[in-house]
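Saturday, quiet lab. Running sequence design on the structure tokens for the scaffold JK sent over.
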């Protein structure tokens, strides 16, 4: 039902996560075509609540397209997609969608939602805690136009987390980060995963990097999902 590697790997743990967690996404033979060319072909994938999934593949393999299908931004040209009604996803895009003339803090303020936070103070303390964990507290009043790539990436991630999503979908979130900062981000997301049951879907062309983290790795090759298994089994 899933991928070849899954069938040949009876020890694979991700089957358990389906049993424990509710299915958040189920893709059946999903195809996405752009101008007659297939960016995704026959993709079968199931993601359970509380999973950490890394999506790998070289540039052009279809990672961004798959994330956009999961987030509901692109409708499949063929096949079916099921999304759980309890899914409240937030997406961190490859282009970070920050407002350049505003400061980091001003960009983060857009995440404030009075239906989520009891008070502005509660929001502020979450914001400050996240900034501290990612090591950017002293740079919150810097304008985005003056920020380096790593700072921008962290602001985009914090803005996403401040909306308290149950699914976090990120496209190459560490492209401007060195290994220590990538690890720091992974540790932070892991805390959200275990404490708030946040499901994580993280795309990266850097397979060596994601193999250092704990989670399921799914691999796209020319639009086909050719591997799914836990990093420790690779
Ligand atoms: N909006 C689009 N219009 C036309 N072709 C696209 C579009 N988005 C992606 N593609 C094509 O689909 C394929 C997969 O792209 P993408 O999902 O961006 O891969 P990745 O994120 O792995 O680099 C590529 O061949 C790309 O050129
Ligand atoms: Mg991409």
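Result came back. Writing it out in full:
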């Amino acid at each position: 039902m899933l991928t070849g590697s899954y069938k040949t790997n009876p020890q694979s743990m991700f089957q358990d996560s389906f049993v424990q967690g509710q299915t958040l996404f189920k893709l059946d033979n999903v195809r996405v075509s752009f101008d007659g060319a297939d960016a995704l072909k026959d993709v079968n994938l199931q993601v359970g609540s509380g999973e950490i999934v890394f999506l790998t593949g070289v540039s052009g393999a279809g990672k961004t397209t798959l994330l956009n299908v999961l987030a509901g931004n692109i409708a499949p040209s063929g096949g079916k997609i099921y999304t759980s009604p309890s899914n409240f996803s937030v997406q961190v895009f490859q282009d970070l969608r920050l407002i350049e003339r505003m400061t980091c803090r001003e960009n983060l303020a857009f995440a404030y939602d009075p239906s989520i936070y009891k008070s502005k103070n509660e929001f502020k303390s979450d914001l400050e805690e996240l900034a501290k964990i990612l090591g950017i507290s002293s740079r919150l009043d810097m304008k985005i136009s003056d920020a380096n790539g790593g700072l921008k990436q962290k602001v985009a991630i914090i803005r996403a987390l401040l909306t308290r999503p149950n699914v976090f979908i990120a496209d190459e979130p560490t492209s401007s980060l060195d290994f220590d900062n990538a690890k720091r981000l992974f540790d932070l997301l892991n805390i959200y995963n275990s404490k708030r049951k946040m499901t994580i879907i993280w795309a990266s062309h850097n397979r060596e990097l994601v193999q250092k983290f704990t989670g399921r790795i799914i691999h796209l090759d020319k639009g086909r999902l050719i591997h799914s298994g836990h990093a420790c089994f690779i």
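Notes for JK: The pocket of magnesium ion (ligand 2) is lined by residues 63-64, 94, 171 (CB under 6 Å). The mean pLDDT is 88. Ask whether to fix the surface positions before the next round.
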